[in-house]
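In this section we walk through a basic example: taking a raw amino acid sequence and producing a predicted 3D structure, encoded as discrete structure tokens. The instruction is simple. Fold the sequence below.
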Amino acid sequence: MKKTTKIQILISTLSVLPLILVIAVYSKLPDKVPMHWDFSGTVEYDSKNKLFVLCFLTIFFAVLFPLLPKIDPKKKNYDKFSSSYQYFQIFMMLFMLFMTSICVIEALRPNTLNVSMLICIIVGALFIFLGNMMPRFRTNWFCGIRTPWTMSSEENWTKTHRLGGRIFFIAGIIILLSSFVPNEYFRFGAVMAALMAACIVTSVYSYIIYKKQQNK
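The resulting token sequence is shown next.
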């Protein structure tokens, strides 16, 4: 219980950091701040008030994640991977802080950061993180590879997530390496290819397992 409480305090603290950051520099920000980047380097600007959307979205996630296990019909399974689920929450809070920080830094000092490269790095890190965590997930309705076939049996879920963990880890390494290639379109292609491969391969694999189980 003490461990859980400490982790939840950490998650709560991380969730308010984006808001603290924005409030601290708000008066120094221009009226329009960069909010979106495409892989060609084009920047879209929006009102600095929109930064608060990111901040409150982070807080919303921090409140939502602990509630999901309580409303999940398979809530007992969360006890089997509670630490992985908590680490996932921490990662998401850091991710939101990272994205808010990019917007703030680029608003105050334009072109300081290579945004597409940084986003590739964090997405690659996310895939690597999920690759390590995924084999520990147990059947639930909110996180993991949820296809009609993985939800059909515990065996299907376990086998699919073992394979999924490897695929996501490899995809993360590929994305991470692609972030150092000085071509934005290559980075975009690497991210999309890795994402599609991870989704398609795991879905097909779960279906194959399902058909084998049906034919026994």
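Looking at the output, two observations stand out. Residues 184-214 form the longest helix (31 residues). The two ends are 43 Å apart (CA to CA). In the next section we compare this with other chains.
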